Automatic annotation (TrEMBL):
<keyword id="KW-0256">Endoplasmic reticulum</keyword>
<comment type="pathway">
    <text>Protein degradation; proteasomal ubiquitin-dependent pathway.</text>
</comment>
<dbReference type="GO" id="GO:0043130">
    <property type="term" value="F:ubiquitin binding"/>
</dbReference>
<keyword id="KW-0143">Chaperone</keyword>
<dbReference type="GO" id="GO:0034098">
    <property type="term" value="C:VCP-NPL4-UFD1 AAA ATPase complex"/>
</dbReference>
<dbReference type="GO" id="GO:0005634">
    <property type="term" value="C:nucleus"/>
</dbReference>
<feature type="domain" description="RanBP2-type">
    <location>
        <begin position="582"/>
        <end position="610"/>
    </location>
</feature>
<keyword id="KW-0863">Zinc-finger</keyword>
<dbReference type="Pfam" id="PF05021">
    <property type="entry name" value="NPL4"/>
</dbReference>
<dbReference type="InterPro" id="IPR007717">
    <property type="entry name" value="NPL4_C"/>
</dbReference>
<dbReference type="Pfam" id="PF11543">
    <property type="entry name" value="UN_NPL4"/>
</dbReference>
<keyword id="KW-0479">Metal-binding</keyword>
<dbReference type="GO" id="GO:0030970">
    <property type="term" value="P:retrograde protein transport, ER to cytosol"/>
</dbReference>
<keyword id="KW-0007">Acetylation</keyword>
<dbReference type="InterPro" id="IPR001876">
    <property type="entry name" value="Znf_RanBP2"/>
</dbReference>
<feature type="domain" description="MPN">
    <location>
        <begin position="228"/>
        <end position="365"/>
    </location>
</feature>
<dbReference type="InterPro" id="IPR016563">
    <property type="entry name" value="Npl4"/>
</dbReference>
Amino acid sequence: MAETIIIRVQSPEGVKRITAAKRETVATFLKKVAKEFGFRNNGFSVYVNRNRTGEITASQNKSLHLLKIKHGDMLFLFPSSPAGSSSENMDTSISQGLLRPLGVPHVVEDEIDQYLIKQDGKIYRNRDQQLCRHGPLGKCVHCVPLEPFDEDYLNHLEPPVKHMSFHAYIRKLTGGADKGKFVALENISCKIKSGCEGHPPWPEGICTKCQPSAITLNRQKYRHVDNIMFENHTLADRFLDFWRKTGNQHFGYLYGRYTEHKDIPLGIRAEVAAIYEPPQIGTQNSLELLEDPKAEVVDEIAAKLGLRKVGWIFTDLVSEDTRKGTVRYSRNKDTYFLSAEECITAGNFQNRHPNICRLSPDGHFGSKFVTVMATGGPDNQVHFEGYQVSNQCMALVRDECLLPCRDAPELGYAKESSSEQYVPDVFYKDIDKFGNEITQLARPLPVEYLIIDITTTFPKDPVYTFPISQNPFPIENRDVLGETQDFHSLATYLSQNTSSVFLDIISDFHLLLFLVTNEVMPLQDSISLLLEAVRTRNEELAQTWKKSEQWATIEQLCSTVGVPLSGLHEYGAMGSSTHAASSAMWACQHCTFMNQPGTDHCEMCSLPRT
């Protein structure tokens, strides 16, 4: 066996110890250095001396022994990229109050995170007339600004805040004299580390180097999102209409944006602007999601509208009294708030949508993806409750270590190790009947250790990213209600809409999705201008798109379904130019075949154009 040596490598950010073989080649050693320090390319140089003399390069094709590099020697690493050197990144981070730890990859965080990093975040207080004994320019313990993570301040808010914001938590970690130089937000792993060569693979062998640590569940002190806000009540009412009409539970994805939540220091709010309802099978007691072939297109269209998928929503409603319109209050502290199966589903969604974070060696930490449940409240009316699951729950779900209990929805169960999978021990702390704190094995596990509650609100002054009409366009995947998206429903929507502004008519999230995803005339490649008009609320751009051949073809399709369109010409929704209409594809009224522009007879049935 080759003799192993340990070589110290010093960089502008710290020292790492590299294990190597005595007769290992320089090229192999430099690859280890690159991996240890998080360099993807050869963006660094290694020298024998601190004054950058005696460079070690892979082209030397020699072993470490021939270069007289011995056990315990110190080498010196300098990043070679002037634009993105570690020292410059370090200076920039220090100026912002944070320092990206050694080995953490450079990532681009969300806009809201970049904004909050630059904020002061401190809680400023006015001079207390009774307790402050100093002048107007002085400060004392009674009026000095508080840090955003001050627990006494958060507990005295109305209502009290149990969880500090994620950015306040980061300020707490990086508030020392070292400015968080050695802070790294590690993602929990429940899997055996690969590459351990000292023993056979599991289940024949395991050691302390590759064995994952046991997990003790703690209630998370911070949350990645501090508030969920629906832009208006109509948005939620249209979603609830499915349950009102069928009695079956329903599911949807929340599309919106992340903004600053000013009620909590350095807080983040998830604003919901639209709800997309994917294919699903719902009953009174269950929900089953089906494969959605349009999922990627919906995300793409939402991105062009300035939106993103921020969460999911589902109903758990049972009618109590149909005459009074009340619902059953079934989820409370005496039963459960989220079931184990719902926690696992939420954890799965959060793992699919990680939170980009520059303080994590993996480039991501936690998630901003939220869960909203429509259920009965204490007053037997429909309430919207917001939740997330903890990062510990995300790890258990990601590594397939958590199962639901069949007969007790409020309990989860940590899997036991098998020959196929090693599962670390999972514990939680509880209080016994004598008032003593005890540690319990998570078999079973109360899921309240995994849940983080989030306030869900509606604004006093409604906001409308997509203006709501009295006769809105049908929502997708509601065929069971007889509500279908086709050109007949489009023509009906246009004929009933009395607005004189084309942008208001076309600014419907579900209508835009239909224009892009319909099978007869999909506009995915030619709708970017319209989406930009909707995003920026630019009527001029919308009018420009309205004069295109694509909209003229849509008009022709609508005119073949037998819906009176006279009202449309009054405000110009169907008032495209004659040139555009004549140069657009047209649908035969007899066989509905789409014909090329300029033809007088149908190419399918040969009947004249009417």
